[in-house]
């Protein structure tokens, strides 16, 4: 596996692979890799001749009060995981490699970015779209892999890719969970023992909501209030949102219908966690 921090080195390698007729898969990450990232990488390795992973904590997707400086990092462990999973190129740029001092161009997917996480993190998806668009132009992959764990992010990236006519297939991959249900996340490392137990209210609420809809319940308020009840019973938990939306547009719906996303964001102490499910209702 080659490791580089240089945009030009990525371009040169991918150009060479193209000359040899290889297909290229791409998995963008912020590092501190776990089995969730690994599942995306494994899928990319299966479906492409060559795989590029980016490992970059993107400063412009963090709000001023957010956890950019404390976001967990472990490049050695990330390299080991990527190498073992069959990654061909790990791109680990410094922020200065990605952003010129007078950088001033942004990509924004309107409306689809406004609700859910976009409401409490107003500049987040603009930062995500901008960095992913840049990474797409650097890597120029055939396919790019994203987790459904970040369901709104996936919808936003799909929208951007369609709207800007980027010739890249966006592949969504299922949520990978801990044995007890907690969705795997680099941010889980912030939780102390007590908070780690409290964090189970997210997946418990998600599983209940999913079960209710599968049993035939369609009314959003009925489903969401049953979910809220579980979360509110946990003293360490504070709800950011519990919502039902159209899985493609992210617009609020009152009845589960078509591709339906139920998504939640919950503060456990000072850590904000998200979880969701999508089903065809
Ligand atoms: P991040 O490093 O948090 O920016 O995540 C990089 C990619 O991994 C995103 O597409 C995430 O949706 C995906 N991802 C993170 N956690 C999980 C998980 N538990 N299951 C599946 N995909 C995940």
- H/E element string? EHEHEHEHHHEHEHHHEEE
Structural class: alpha/beta
Question: In what order do the strands lie side by side in the largest sheet?
Answer: 1-4-3-2-5-6
CATH T-level fold name of the largest domain: Rossmann fold
Which residues form runs of ≥5 with pLDDT under 50? none
Give an overview in words.
The chain is of the alpha/beta class. The protein has 2 domains: 2-173, Rossmann fold (3-Layer(aba) Sandwich), CATH 3.40.50; 186-280, Pantoate--beta-alanine Ligase, Chain: A,domain 2 (2-Layer Sandwich). It contains 10 helices and 9 strands. The chain has helices spanning 7-19, 35-47, 75-85, 95-98, 116-120, 124-139, 151-163, 193-198, 200-214, 220-232, and strands spanning 2-4, 24-29, 50-55, 89-91, 143-147, 169-173, 237-246, 259-268, 271-280. The strands form 2 sheets. It has a 6-stranded parallel β-sheet with strand order 1-4-3-2-5-6, sandwiched between helices. Strands 7-8-9 form a 3-stranded antiparallel β-sheet. Helix 7 (151-163) links the parallel strand 5 and strand 6 (169-173). Bound molecules: adenosine monophosphate (AMP).
Short structural description:
With 281 residues, the protein is of the alpha/beta class. The protein has ten helices and nine strands. It is 39% helix and 21% strand.
Secondary-structure blueprint:
Layout: E1 2-4, H1 7-19, E2 24-29, H2 35-47, E3 50-55, H3 75-85, E4 89-91, H4 95-98, H5 116-120, H6 124-139, E5 143-147, H7 151-163, E6 169-173, H8 193-198, H9 200-214, H10 220-232, E7 237-246, E8 259-268, E9 271-280
Parallel strand pairs: 1-4, 2-3, 2-5, 3-4, 5-6
Antiparallel strand pairs: 7-8, 8-9
Helix pairs in contact: 6-7, 9-10
The protein binds adenosine monophosphate.
Adenosine monophosphate is lined by residues 29-30, 36-37, 39-40, 146-147, 149-150, 173, 175-176, 183-186.
């Amino acid at each position: 596996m080659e490791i580089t921090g240089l945009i030009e080195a990525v371009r040169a390698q991918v150009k060479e692979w193209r000359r040899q007729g290889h297909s290229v898969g791409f998995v963008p990450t912020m590092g501190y890799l776990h089995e969730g990232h690994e599942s995306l990488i494994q899928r990319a390795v299966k479906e492409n001749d060559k795989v590029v992973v980016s490992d970059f904590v993107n400063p412009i997707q963090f709000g001023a009060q957010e956890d950019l400086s404390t976001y967990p990092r472990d490049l050695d462990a990330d390299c080991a995981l990527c190498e073992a999973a069959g990654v061909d190129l790990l791109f680990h740029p410094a922020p200065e490699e990605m952003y010129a001092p007078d950088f001033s161009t942004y990509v924004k997917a309107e409306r689809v970015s406004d609700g859910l996480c976009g409401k409490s993190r107003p500049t987040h998806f603009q930062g995500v779209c901008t960095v992913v668009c840049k990474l797409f132009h650097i890597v120029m992959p055939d396919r790019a892999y994203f987790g459904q764990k970040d369901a709104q992010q996936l919808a936003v990236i799909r929208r951007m890719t369609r709207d800007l006519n980027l010739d890249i297939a966006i592949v969504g991959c299922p949520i990978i969970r801990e044995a007890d249900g907690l969705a795997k996340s680099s941010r889980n490392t912030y939780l102390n023992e007590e908070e780690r137990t409290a964090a189970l209210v997210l997946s418990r609420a998600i599983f209940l909501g999913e079960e209710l809809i599968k049993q035939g319940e369609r009314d959003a308020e009925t489903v969401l209030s049953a979910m809220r009840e579980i979360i509110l019973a946990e003293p360490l938990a504070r709800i950011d949102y519990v919502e039902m939306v159209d899985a493609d547009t992210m617009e609020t719906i009152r009845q589960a219908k078509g591709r339906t996303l139920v998504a939640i964001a919950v503060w456990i102490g000072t850590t904000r966690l998200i979880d969701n499910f999508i089903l065809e209702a």
